[in-house]
Amino acid sequence: MTSIVITEKPSQAGDVMKAVGGRYGEIIPAQGHVMRLAEPDEVDPAWTRWSTALLLPAAGRYPLREDPSNGKGARLAKLKPALRAAETIYCSTDCDREGTLIAGNLVNSFSRPSARVLRVVFTAQDPTTLRKAFAEARPWSDFANEMAAGEARSQADQIYNLTLTRAATVLLRQPGAKGAIGIGRVKTPTLAIVCKRELEIEAFQARDYFEVVAQATVAGGRFVMRHAAKPRLEDRVQAEVIARAAEGWSGPLTVVTEDKRQSPPRLFDLPALQKTCSARFGWTADKTLEVAQDLYQNHGHLLTYPRAESRYLAEAQIGDAQTLTERLSGVYGLSAIVPVIRRGKDGVYSDKGLEGVSHHAVIPNVNGDLSKLAALDADGRRLFDLVAKAYLAAHHPDHLYRQTTVTALVEGYLFRATGRITTSPGWTAIYDDRADDEGGEAAEAEQTLPPLINGDPAQLSAAKVEAKRTKPPPRYTEGTLIQAMQESWRFIPDSRPDLRERLRDAKGIGTPATRAEVIKGLKRQDMLAAKGKLVVPSDQGMSLYKLLAEAAPRLVDPGVTALWELRLDQILLGRVTADQVIQEIAHEAEKVVAALTRRVAEGNLSLLAGSGRFGAGKQAGLSPRLSAQAGRAPTDKQVAFLTKLSKEKAAPIPAGTLDDMARTSAMIDHLMGKGPKLKAKAPKRAAAPRRTPRKARGDAPAQAETA
Question: How many Cα atoms sit within 13 Å of 303 on the Cβ side?
């Protein structure tokens, strides 16, 4: 029986060869998405001209085409005859939505209907894991929903992104300006997150406030107490009154001691890893993924699949805990333990927590070659240590401590101090210091208190007023921007608690595999810029955001986009069909176009000058005809024709349009359903700013995601 193995990229083919050789047939690598969706003009020649038309094919979907670019033609030349001849096909592409789509598009396009198709499922690429995955290959039919979700994402992004990019370019760009105004289902709300924060910072007005501190003296020593003001004291005179009351005060203390416990930090998914590496090492999100991918594919396959979208492990992995904790304990010179197994939503192992996701948390590979650690460079070792220590901590006992809270009522004013002592270090013993964990989940350092019992007398002295000033919200780093994209439920107003709750457990906007590329794409298109470790909007990025926020607020609302991601997840769970979601997102695009058209017709929008590179840079600029007309007065015939059209279409003519021939011509084109004509010598697909040059699928997300 003729059988073949399809992998996603050449490096993956090499790993499969080392693991199983030719046991399952010839191993043939793809190169990411070697099949593409047809361009709009390939579906309907009328779509060659840019307009406000909804680019939804009559059949409901774009057909597939072969993509010979960037050497993919040579891959297809080997894949096509092999697929046609194969009786059994093993699909060993990445085990996520896009990996399934890559394999499925090839199988659906070229394999014989009678072929037996099997899916090889793995979360690491070491020989042991791959041999087990091939031996337990599952029927392709088990992954029908995952394939459908991938198709819906691809089709919906094509329809939404291209429709809105063309419509925005036609409607919002000033006549004579060049460059497409690139709009994306994920990209544009991400730009909005950064721009909103920048506007908050600009509007922020710092306020002075004051705190009162004093030194408390007891029999066993001294410590600092602080006035517990709620809300903050903004009146210095009042603060000085409190300080005078505290100076020299003596009286009994109220002392409350509680035994508490603290669970270890959660395991890493990719967004949490990117956030931590950004804060700790100043890495971009893209660099974090690159280093993690290298540890996954190379260097002894030290990590599991890095594009993780969950912080849980499957309950079936409990059996690996003893082996893996023992091996890692040896690496860090720790005593071996009986691992603590935490189950459920608040634990580590939860099958329910993995529902609707393709990959568990990033952890060290139980079959990885730890002897390769010595050969890692500094970046590789730092990232491995983060992941390994998180896994070890997750299997150690809770950190136990005794917390003491001391209060004093000083002439009606409450002063407070807190301190803690560790009674059992538990998981904290894994870390060299408390800053070595994920950051933010460990307790803040507190002062050491002398021995105290309730009712002990104390005297306050050295009371003083500390002047402080409120700070604006911080700008985003790539790590915190990734987190904001993931936690898009936070952008839902408090007036919609039902919607906030629905999105709280959703994935946010984009996916772990695509968010870094979206940010990088916005920088490449001069919408965002790096300012040290920070991410800030460019002038043209801010201009675009303000215009879109005024004309079509839903287009820049991260919450709306997160709802579409939630719908894609529901395909995976079998609760909705791919065609339903495609139609819903197409309808959303149509509504946004209508809103933009209406606002432009009202004539109260300031159009974009387009001096920078919007979306596809210089692609799809004004035709030579319109460029030549810019700055000239329209003819009487043009004015009369546009006046007639505006009455027929009930579309008011924006102020200033009849003063410029290019504006007049552009408005005529718009009302007649035409867009700016492509430059005569431009390549056929230069009009579609959807695609940007990218590496193979193994190194960058799938098509259309960055548009």
Answer: 37
